[in-house]
Amino acid sequence: MNNKVKIAVFPVAGLGTRFLPATKSMPKEMLTVVDRPLIQYAVDEAREAGIEHFVFVTGRNKGVIEDHFDRQFELETTLFERGKTKELKELQKDLPKPGQTSFTRQQEPLGLGHAVWCARDIVGDEPFALLLPDMLIKAEPGVLSQMMGAYNENGGNIIAVEEVDKKDVSSYGVVGRGAGLDEGFIINEMIEKPDPKDAPSNLIISGRYILQPRIFDLLSSHTKGAGGEIQITDAMQALMKEQQFTGVKFKGRTFDCGSKIGFLSANVAYALDREELSEEFRKELAILL
Ligand code: UTP
Q1: What distance in Å separates the CA atoms of residue 240 and residue 255, rounded to the nearest whole number?
Q2: What atom in ligand 1 is closest to the CA of residue 111?
Q3: Residue 217 has pLDDT above 80, yes or no
């Protein structure tokens, strides 16, 4: 029987330089797609997959993320007094229950691997989910839910992957595909930002992982990789020598909201999907195009 995955880690300590000046004093993860911040979509996806504890690895200027997941008594009272019960219910629905959140700080943005390592004491000796909130994935059920099936069957470590044009693989972590179906296949190779001619496939790592706690030991060497950053892919490569990694080619559409095009496209896609906005927004888009 595999240990149930109950904890999710959300690294939110990056500088978000591609979104300056917006991210000068506001975290990238609080950028909104329609009317919800990116971090809320990631937390909703984790909750849907059965996650019970949410760990945020924050940095400077990220206090507002903590506030977002706290109660706002003044606002709630005002909404109540004005009879705005629908809005009040919406706010309350989004909140994790008391004691379900933890916050720790990555004092320096040394890379994603380092951010994950900062969560080691909170996660302890448990498997955990890792979600990158700037990779927004529109999927039903959510990608983490799709991965739980593969985890329940295979245990070990699970990585969500998707296909891209081979020429684009050099911006991502890429996996090699071994035996198995799209819902769960053996990963036999992993490489961060390869030259397209050296890439084992066009399957890229999409920002959703289920990892065993052994990864923390491997991250503790703080070895720098691509771009001079401590990379999670390097530690996963080392872990592959000891434990199984299963790939899940999920059903869904990814928007890389760390890039402007991805973020703008996400806003269009999610707005078109909202019943109360879709028709009018379609008309506005037609005028603009
Ligand atoms: P990115 O690779 O998109 O980096 O991080 P970034 O620094 O946020 O953005 P740019 O490239 O400067 O525009 C992917 C995720 O990992 C987190 C980020 O907050 C984001 O959620 N991260 C990255 C950290 O928490 N710490 C780091 O040192 C690096």
Answers
A1: 28
A2: 28
A3: yes
Write down all domains in the chain, each with its CATH number in brackets. 7-288 (3.90.550.10)
Quote the tokens at residue 285: 């888009």
* Smallest CA separation from ligand 1 atom 3, residue: 258
User: How confident is the model over 10-21, as pLDDT tens digits?
Assistant: 999 988 899 999
Residues with CB under 6 A from ligand 1: 11-18, 28, 57, 106, 109-112, 114-115, 132-134, 258
Number of Cβ within a 10 Å radius of residue 152: 14
Q: How far is the CA of 81 from the centre of ligand 1 (A)?
A: 40
- Looking at residue 2, its pLDDT comes to 72
For residues 105 and 186, give the distance between their C-alpha atoms in angstroms, rounded to a whole number.
Answer: 34
Query: Which of 20, 26, 28 most suits a substitution to test ligand 1, by most atoms within 8 Å of the C-beta?
Result: 28
Task: Give nearest CA residue, ligand 1 atom 5.
Answer: 14
Tokens representing residue 253 in the block = 């559409």
Mutate to test the pocket of ligand 1, among 10, 15, 233 (most ligand atoms within 8 A of CB): 15
pLDDT in tens, 157-214: 999 999 999 999 998 899 999 999 999 999 999 998 899 999 999 999 999 999 999 9
Structure tokens at 70: 């706290």
Cis (ω within 30 of 0) for the bond into 133?
Answer: no
* Ligand 1 nearest-atom number relative to CA 10: 21
Amino acid at 55: V
The span from the CA of 173 to the CA of 234, in Å, is 10
Structure tokens at 271: 């707005």
pTM summary value: 0.94
Q: How far apart are CA 130 and CA 53, in angstroms?
A: 12
